[in-house]
Give the backbone structure.
Amino acid sequence: MAFELPKLGYAYDALEPHIDARTMEIHHSKHHQGYTNNLNNAIAGTDLEGKSIDDILGNLDMNNSAVRNNGGGFYNHSLFWEVMNPEDRGYLSGDLKDAIEAAYGSKDEFIQAFSNAAGTRFGSGWAWLCVHKGGKVEICSTPNQDNPLMPGVSCGGTPILGLDVWEHAYYLNYQNRRPDYIKAFFNVVNWNEMEKRYAEAK
Ligand code: MN3
């Protein structure tokens, strides 16, 4: 079974005014579709065909740049769309709230630290909140389409929040103002989705 572009759980304009519809449409239907197609091409006829994306990334040969870039791109965007779901957005609560406060002091301090990781990532990449076995959370960032599931990449652990800071994610609406885009992102983060992923990952 080849990988398929996941359908969004909401309309392209559902995140406006924070993330504009045109950016969402291009990002999902062109960029994410491209990573998906290129991943399928890269694994076709190899022993990676038929494996789950988590398995492929977790055991990745980091010298396999086609799978590294496109498998990362496929996984990262799939997570990104789900953590921005505008339905039943919820609020930071429960075990995830405890873990974030233990690591960063408060929700506001967490948002500040995460925003700093996203803002200082030079060039293209991602900021992450990851969960380690046992439940500890950690912020980190990666270049390009790398992610912490890949062997030896950044903080490790399972990502439960990812923010795309490639210019294609914000340039149409925010041009060079990445900090404004990062601020806007926290208006559309789905805390319930994060909490669900935290419970599964820890
Ligand atoms: Mn992107």
Summary: The pocket of manganese (III) ion is lined by residues 27, 31, 77, 164, 166, 168-169 (CB under 6 Å).
